[in-house]
Amino acid sequence: MKERVQIRFLGCGDAFGSGGRFNTCFLVDGGGRKFLIDCGATSMVAMRHWEVDPNSIGLILISHLHGDHFGGLPFFLLDAQLISRRKTPLTIAGPPGLEARLEQAMEVLFPGSSRARPKYGLTIIELEAERAHDVEGVKVTPYEVGHPSGAPSYALRVGVGGKTICYSGDTQWTESLGRATRGADLFVCECNFYDKAARYHMNYMTLMGKLGEIGPKKLVLTHMGTDMIARAGDLDHQAAEDGLTLVVE
Question: Which of 14, 29, 38, 68 is catalytic?
């Protein structure tokens, strides 16, 4: 059954704060669930800024293990334990290597924190590529893409409330990204550059050349560098901004 599905860009920036934007963190609200897609290093700041209750989040999906996409997790987990006093279970799902990398990050940032037992149920799931997973009632199919991160990097095809959202993660164009995106109701795609051919990241001109074959109903550009931000008002497709809220049609 189709329901109202909303996505809010709590953060849509790149790793370097271009344009003064928060790191990647999208809040999806639909199908009776609220969950995050990515939780970059500034995500707790963004959640406080946009007055989002972290205890309302039951699931966090992670595309890949770079700090601007998963680096907010140690802060989120410590907040859950010490500040927000979380009572309800939390699931974090992402690529293979997530659990070990998260433990390492917690120990680097807050020594001893990874050994603290949370007072709520915490489940970490490592997702197999190109297999549909039911994670807390959300259908997630990851596709491995081209972006070295010390572990597989994923584009995420997410089904919720009868709608399909595809998020590219960070990647240059790959055929797997085309399969992940085909026919999606919303495609959120990183677009770091306008026409610069940089390995491991997307540019706008390459994406425009591929758009016809993948056919998403709507495209929103995210993770933009300074040259893309300067051109945002002149593009043929919507560019995300921190705080942008959309209903997935």
Answer: 68
